[in-house]
Specification:
The structure holds two protein chains of two kinds. Chain A is mostly helical. Chain A is built from 13 helices and two strands, in the order αααααβααααβαααα. A two-stranded antiparallel sheet of chain A has the order 1-2. Chain A is globular. The termini of chain B are far apart. Helix content of chain B is about 75%, strand content about 5%. The chains are: A mainly alpha, B mainly alpha. The interface between A and B is large, with 43 and 51 residues.
Chain lengths: ~325, ~300
């Protein structure tokens, strides 16, 4: 067995890491064009959403196939707060997080009694059902949806500062703060409790952990983060409508979580980038080699699906864990 | 009153089709502890086979059995080449049900894209083989047509034969034994791996039937990106969960409950609330009975 020199990583190191990532995003935002800035913002939104799934599934062992619905709740809350209460944008975001957490707490108290297939079924039904409510009540705007506008970038940033770059900044900042908070939370008492519950429920209970309560808490936190992601998503597309939250969104978030490695928060970028990059790569490939329109439209789905199966087979714990375990043997 | 009976009839027909899909999901869950989202894709693929056979031969009575065979073969293929190696690798721990779910979601995506590639914009046509005009009772047309009777008849026939297989044959005994205690069954000389593949094959046949009946009962045509099939998959799964996911009887009860309640809501409340109603029914039943209508608390049923 090889001797492993384990670097002692303190919270200070991690903070410096986060600042460096932030700096990289800042430099990146100044060099890319509008379309790339929009994609960057989308990646940041996915990072937040996938992090919420990883927290729930990877750290507490509860399955959710319905996080798209939680994103929808966050998005609608933000938009409704803005339209009907005319509050400043940052309060809309807070409202989105609070309302979605509340919903997550209710859902979580049902979920804490369910396991495995039952939980998967419940969350799946939620993902299918919830967005269609918007068609029933007129204040939710039906198919067209309602608008959510974070406004133009402040003038102090200069004339050349574009709208999408502004979105990119907002979403990246939100993503960095959220990730920082989650990784601290996972290292806290709560994080350890969750991991204990996931590893062995009976043992955790015997050690004095209130299993049901800690599961509900995890669902609440995860839902709050998902609500944040939803509000951010609404901000980048300026609109909230049922069609923005199809079942496919819930599935692609689960996909992103698996590609990231569902047990490690550190891989969250991989899944988010993959979700945005795959359609791009697919269109490049089909342009070059076939030019057929049907191939171009089908290739992204095919690549994502194939990648999913490959990941499950080759790196079931995610790329990062896989790499780590191979090098620490 | 008349309207209510019609609603009930519509609900029972739809519910019986959901039951078949639920049975397909329950059979896979019992044999390998996997939630098979690929079942929706398999049903879709077999319905295309059915449509192709119908086009060649012109007979629904040849198309349906061939589609069932196709469904069984597809399903066994997937079990043999994907799920078996996957479960071998993860070592049957059972706790990690997330990965197989994701694998079957990936398979669903691949099946759908392959079908879209082959068929493109073309659709498979599966018109009702019998009249779908309702019988006339005291001057008014009721929601019971020869076609609906056929659907109920096929579903009933399948359920009776499944029950007979499971209760009266050696194969059924092996199926129950290897889902109840795989290790002990292996020691008793049952080829558990083979039996699991058989379980998947039966599930595929049930799914194919559900797919064909859903199409003939609905729009009469099948497309790769069909909304009807997404509904079939989701409602079939919800029905299976309501029924306790272990039990065939539960799957049937779950499917009928769901079908009837959704038909009532569609009729009296509003179309866009149907989906959220499915969620509310599910969560209500699971809160009252977390193990489903039939599922036993604690131990597993064979």
């Amino acid at each position: 067995m090889a001797v492993v020199h384990k670097l002692h990583v303190t919270n200070k190191h991690r903070f410096i890491g986060f600042v460096l990532i932030g700096l990289m995003v800042y430099i990146l935002s100044n060099t890319v064009d509008e379309w790339k800035a929009f994609q960057g913002a989308t990646i940041a939104v996915y990072v937040v959403a996938i992090a919420s799934i990883i927290l729930l599934t990877g750290y507490t062992g509860q399955i959710s196939l319905g996080h798209g619905a939680l994103l929808a709740i966050g998005a609608y809350t933000a938009a409704l707060t803005q339209i009907y209460l005319q509050l400043p944008v940052w309060i809309c975001f807070i409202a989105a997080v609070l309302v979605t957490s509340l919903f997550g707490a209710i859902l979580g108290s049902a979920a804490a009694r369910l396991s495995g297939p039952y939980l998967a079924g419940t969350t799946l039904a939620l993902a299918v059902g919830l967005p269609s409510i918007a068609n029933q009540f007129s204040f939710l705007g039906g198919e067209q949806g309602i608008s959510f506008d974070v406004g133009w970038p402040p003038l102090s940033l200069g004339e050349a500062f574009t709208q999408y770059k502004w979105f990119f900044w907002i979403t990246s900042l939100a993503a960095l703060i959220t990730l920082w908070w989650i990784q601290n939370l996972l290292r806290s008492r709560y994080g350890r409790t969750w991991r204990a519950v996931k590893t062995n429920e009976v043992a955790a209970e015997l050690a004095g952990i209130h299993v049901a309560r800690s599961k509900v808490l995890a669902f609440t936190v995860s839902a709050g983060i998902a609500g944040m992601a939803g509000a951010l998503l609404a901000a980048t597309i300026n609109n909230v409508s049922p069609s923005a939250f199809p079942l496919a969104l819930s599935f692609s978030l689960a996909t992103g979580a698996v590609l990231s490695g569902v047990n490690t928060l550190g891989g969250v970028m991989i899944g988010a980038v993959a979700l945005v990059a795959i359609p791009e790569i697919a269109s490049l490939v089909s342009d070059r080699w076939s030019g057929s329109e049907s191939v171009a439209s089908l290739l992204p789905d095919f690549i994502v699906s194939a990648l999913l199966i490959l990941t499950v087979f080759l790196a079931p714990k995610g790329p990062i864990e896989n790499f780590r375990s191979r090098h620490v043997k | 009153m008349f309207e209510f009976i019609n609603t009930l009839l519509i609900g029972i027909t739809a519910g019986s089709i959901y039951s078949l899909m639920a049975i397909s999901i329950v059979l896979v869950w019992r044999s390998t502890r996997v939630i098979n989202f690929a079942a929706g894709g398999l049903a879709l693929a077999s319905s295309f086979v059915g449509a192709a056979v119908l086009e060649k031969t012109g007979s629904f009575w040849i198309a349906l059995p061939l589609a069932m065979v196709a469904g069984a073969v597809f399903s066994a293929f997937i079990e043999f080449f994907f799920l078996r190696p996957l479960l071998k690798r993860s070592g049957d721990k059972g706790a990690e049900i997330f990965l197989p779910i994701i694998a079957t979601l990936g398979l669903l995506g691949i099946i759908k894209t392959i079908l879209s590639y082959i068929y493109g914009e073309r659709i498979g046509s599966l018109p009702p083989p019998l009249s779908d005009k309702g019988f006339i009772v005291s001057g008014e047309s009721i929601a019971l047509s020869p076609m609906r009777i056929l659907i109920l008849g096929i579903v009933l026939l399948l359920m009776i034969s499944l029950t007979l297989i499971f209760q009266r044959t050696n194969l059924g005994l092996s199926l129950r034994a290897s889902s109840f205690a795989p290790e002990i069954s292996r020691l008793a000389g049952i080829r558990v791996d083979l039996i699991r593949t058989v379980g998947w094959a039966i599930s595929g046949a049930a799914g194919a039937t559900a797919g064909i009946l859903q199409t003939t009962n609905g729009s009469g045509s099948v497309a790769p990106e069909s909304f009807e099939f997404s509904l079939l998959l989701v409602f079939g799964f919800v029905a299976a969960v309501i029924g306790g996911i272990e039990s065939l009887v539960g799957a049937v009860l779950g499917g009928l409950t769901l079908g009837i309640i959704l038909a009532i809501i569609l009729m009296y409340v509003g179309g866009s609330l149907v989906f959220i109603a499915a969620f509310l029914i599910l969560i209500l039943i699971l809160l009252l009975r977390p193990q489903g209508i039939i599922g036993a608390k604690g131990g597993r049923r064979a």
